[in-house]
Amino acid sequence: MTVAETASELRSIVNSFSKELMTADARAVALRPDPHSWSPKEVLGHLIDSAANNHQRFVRAQQSDPLVMPGYEQNHWVSSQGYQEADWSHLVTLWMHLNLHLVDVIGHIPPDKYSVACVIGDSQPLTLEALVIDYLRHLQHHMAQIRPTLA
Question: Smallest Cα–Cα separation from 88: which of 35, 139, 24?
Fold first, then answer.
């Protein structure tokens, strides 16, 4: 998949999945499958955090080669922001708009920046292109966790 195809696919996913999310039962999305797992609300919160962190990465990688940024402790981010108690429609709207903005950001990355090395936390370096493409894979992984709640 190319960067342009990723942007196009992300736009399509945002437009369709946000509609699915809005139909979810507010009680169902607050249920945790077990005490050690996130509820669908918290998974969506994690996806909001992912969009926010990757926004920084996608923009900053265009000014720095290599890009070196910290990772983030996902459980802390989810719990400290109170996603479990948040309004579902607010979370869906925030997720949708952050990702539509990412589509635009991705679409403006000059091809000569695709090869910029990105080191996030203690991970192995990835190119900016690989980071963008992996963002979509990560999103789809978590969509699969949320979808059963929507049925």
Answer: 24
